Amino acid sequence: MLKPLSVHILLALAENESHGYALMRAIREQSGGQVAVQTASFYRYLGNLMDDGLVAESLRHRETDDPRRGAYYRITARGRQVLAAEKKRLTDLVAQLNRVRLSTRKADA
After folding, report:
1. CA separation (Å) from 88 to 53, 56, 103, 106, 107?
2. Can you tell me the distance from the alpha carbon of 69 to that of 84, in angstroms, rounded to the nearest whole number?
3. 68-81: per-residue pLDDT in tens?
4. Tell me: the pLDDT tens digits for 45-98?
5. Is residue 8 assigned to a domain?
6. Structural domain tally of the chain?
7. CA-to-CA distance for 53 and 17, rounded, in angstroms?
8. Which of 29, 61, 69, 99 is the most buried (most CB within 10 A)?
9. Nearest by Cα to 9 from 84, 69, 51, 20
10. Entry pTM
């Protein structure tokens, strides 16, 4: 099970390679501002994803893009597998929640 910020990083990379600042912006947008992205924690999570082989540095943009943007990142094949497994886990969880009838009564004390 991944932490929410890790899922959002993988999700942001699922469509395109990107540099860190653009990834943080994409996470804010895709979460509707509900996921707070701080620079230090973002790069710590990104580093963990790289250590786990889920994200890698992209070499494609190195020579053609603005050098001020720093490194570009891409999701790996393993990262796509983990993201798909997380999607299944969350889909199954939502299905279970949908089967539960939540009562509006106050719980017995």
Report:
1. 20, 23, 27, 32, 31
2. 29
3. 667 899 999 999 99
4. 999 999 999 999 987 655 555 666 678 999 999 999 999 999 999 999 999 999
5. yes
6. 1
7. 15
8. 61
9. 20
10. 0.83
Residue at 30 is within a domain: yes
Residues 24 and 42: their CA atoms lie apart, in Å, by 8
Can you give the length of the chain in residues?
A: 109
CB atoms < 10 A from the CB of 25, how many?
Answer: 13
- CATH number of the CATH domain containing 23: 1.10.10.10
Q: Which pair of tokens denotes residue 88?
A: 């299944």
The token duo for 26 is 């994409």
Q: Which residues sit opposite 19 in a β-bridge?
A: 72
93, two tokens: 């969880």
Q: Is residue 78 part of a domain?
A: yes
> And the tokens for 66?
């603005």
Q: In the structure encoding, which two tokens stand for residue 47, read together?
A: 């580093």
d(CA 66, CA 96): 47
Q: Which amino acid is at 43?
A: Y
